[in-house]
Design brief:
Blueprint: E1 7-11, H1 16-27, E2 31-35, H2 39-49, E3 56-58, H3 69-80, E4 85-88, H4 103-131, E5 134-139, H5 152-172, E6 177-184, H6 191-194, H7 208-211, H8 216-229, E7 233-236, H9 239-250, H10 252-259
Parallel strand pairs: 1-2, 1-4, 2-3, 4-5, 5-6, 6-7
Length: 265
């Protein structure tokens, strides 16, 4: 198996796509480093994966505060001696109109989704560079390609990830380091429930379309297949969303006309 005994570090591993990836990688024989803010939820995921402490390291980590990122990286190295795959899955959603959203909320979203991700990536890159091998996964979104209601800062943060990781892929190719950008559409996770509003509080609602999305397990399965195939970028979601991406690219005016008719949620 391609991932057997590989050291895989997953952020946002306590639920949703991150949890689905943890289960999928564990099923392929990988050793895991699981990060999120809530250690009790990480423990639950570890138990679900069926991994003992020899094959799993729990590192609670808040992407909004990356001052100790090198220390965390060193803990991984002390336990496992290498890092083969970094999955940048952690982040926060948004459900607020740009006009109503204070700039500090915009900064908070960018700090978590973009700067936190970049800080961790740069730290782990030092290890991968010395190894002359590695794989980095950046979790973007359909919103990283297409803007939509209530997601101005979120969409901006995901667009920024594309620019950074497209450039990074070119720079690290010579070091045998791959970069995969994943653009999920509607996946059945709690991202809308936990999304931040203009008041800084949680949205607290499951979007109707989100609830009808693909399962995190199916999303994880497609991501692992993309890694096996050496893909650079993939879309994971339903046909309608893929059609929207194509329409945005080739018929932008028509896309805007249709998108404006959609229900904001």
């Amino acid at each position: 198996m391609l991932f057997k005994d590989k050291i895989v570090w997953i952020t946002g591993a306590s639920s949703g796509i991150g949890e689905g990836l943890a289960v999928a990688f564990a099923g392929e024989g990988a050793k895991l480093v699981l990060s999120a803010r809530q250690k009790d939820e990480l423990l639950r995921v570890q138990r679900r994966c069926g991994l003992n402490d020899d094959r799993c390291l729990l590192l609670p980590f808040d992407l909004a505060d990356t001052k100790n990122v090198n220390q965390l990286r060193d803990e991984v190295m002390q336990k496992f001696g290498r890092i083969d795959i970094l999955v940048n899955n952690g982040g926060i959603g948004q459900r607020s109109y740009a006009l109503d959203t204070p700039i500090d909320i915009d900064r908070r979203i960018m700090e978590v989704n973009f700067f936190g991700t970049i800080a961790l990536t740069k730290s782990v890159l030092m290890v991968m560079h010395k190894q002359n091998s590695g794989q980095i996964v950046a979790m973007s979104s359909v919103s990283g390609k297409v803007g939509f209601y209530l997601r101005s800062a979120y969409s901006a943060s995901k667009h920024a990830l594309h620019g950074f990781f497209d450039s990074l892929r070119m720079e690290v190719y010579k070091y045998n380091i791959g970069v995969l950008i994943v653009c999920p559409g509607r996946i059945r996770t709690n991202i809308s429930i936990n999304a931040v509003t203009e008041k800084g509080s949680k949205h607290g609602k499951m979007d109707e379309a989100q609830d009808k999305g693909l399962s995190p397990e199916e999303c994880a399965k497609q991501i692992l297949h993309a890694l096996e195939a050496g893909r650079e970028e993939i879309y994971v979601g339903q046909p309608r969303e893929k059609q929207a991406l194509l329409m945005k690219r080739f018929f932008p005016s028509l896309f805007s006309k249709i998108a404006r008719r959609q229900k904001p949620e």
